[in-house]
Structure formats: structure tokens, C-alpha cells
Amino acid sequence: xxxxxxxxxxxxxxxxxxxxxADSVAAGRIPNAEIAVVIxxxxxxxxxxxxxxxxxxxxxxEADGRxxxxxxxxxxxxxxxxxIELICLAGYMRLLSSGFIQAFPERILNIHPSLLPAxxxxxxxxxxxxxxxxxxxxxxxxxxxxxxxxxxxLQRAVAVHEADDAHALSxxxxxxxxxxxxxxxxxxxxxxxxxxxxxxVRKQ
Length: 204
Ligand code: GRF
Hints:
This protein is α/β, with parallel strands linked by helices.
């Protein structure tokens, strides 16, 4: 039997993307994978409690006043201990140190609630709404050393409706995030894609 792909999830909050990934793993939509560990920098994150309820390894590794590199070092050690192949940031609200990113080249994914490169940074859905875009969406990308910048794996778009407020738009984007993250992880684990410059393309 081939060994399963071991996923590590990093989150800070409610964890709806984590739960979508967990459901997809359970349903076989991410073939031959398992969630080997869920780590949060917030001990009281709802997503961490949800991971425990599902019987997953769930660790709180808080910064506790440590410098970023030191805190990241503790997380890297936990990821290595659990032999993680792919790290999925799912609402992880802390910037990664360059040491962290270099420790896992092309093995860290992030989901961002806008169609990058538009609206990087915090509150992307509100930024998009206030800007008046007519199409919004989400992006799953590899993490590199610039914020919300790495190679794009896939995006899903949603229409902005006349009657929307930022909250309604955020909810519509979130529903697409849950689909996008599963598809992106499956794509990466399939081994059928390569990075060419900034493009993520199917191998010839
Ligand atoms: C999502 O909007 C995601 O795009 C962003 O943080 C939010 C996390 O939500 N990176 P959840 O904790 O997965 O529900």
C-alpha cells in the first residue's frame, strides 16, 4: 500500500476552510490523503476545538512573546515530527518568517479571499466590495516571501450583486473557498502540475 499524503493545517480562527478540507479528505475528494496535524497559534481557536472533536492531532503553539523566528521554529519542529508533506494555511493570521518558507519550498499553500493580484492583505472581501468590483472571488496559491504573492494554483470567481453588502459578498466567496481549497490540494498532490515561471500548468 502506498503511504498517504500527510497534510498539516495551520489556522487561527473558526476553521471553516479546515473543516471543508477535512470533509473532502473523509469523502475521498482529496485522494490518498490524511490530515496528520492541525496547529493553531491561538489556543482558543474554534477550528482547533473542531479538530479535536474529529479526533485529529490538534496542537496549540502560541507565540507567548517569542520572536517570530523562534515561534516558527517550534511550529516547523512539530510539522517535521508529524512528517508533513503539504502545509495548508487556513485562516492562519500570522506572517511566516522566511526561515519557515524556505524550510518547505513549494509545500505551503494559502487561500486568500480575492482574485489576486487584486486586494492582497487584510479584509480583502471588504476591499473588493468598497472598490466596486463586479466580479470577486478567491485564490489558492503557493506561499512565497511576499504577502499574498506566490504562484497561483487556482481561482474561483463570484458575481457581485446589486443588493450585496460586504457580508453577503464574503459569504458567497467563502462558499467558493471551500471548493477551491480541495481542488487545489488535489491538484498539487496529483503530481501532474509544474511551476513554469509564475504559471502552474499541467505537465506535458
Ligand atoms: C478565509 O476567508 C480565508 O480566505 C482567509 O481567512 C479566512 C479564514 O476563514 N485566509 P476560516 O477560518 O477558514 O473559516
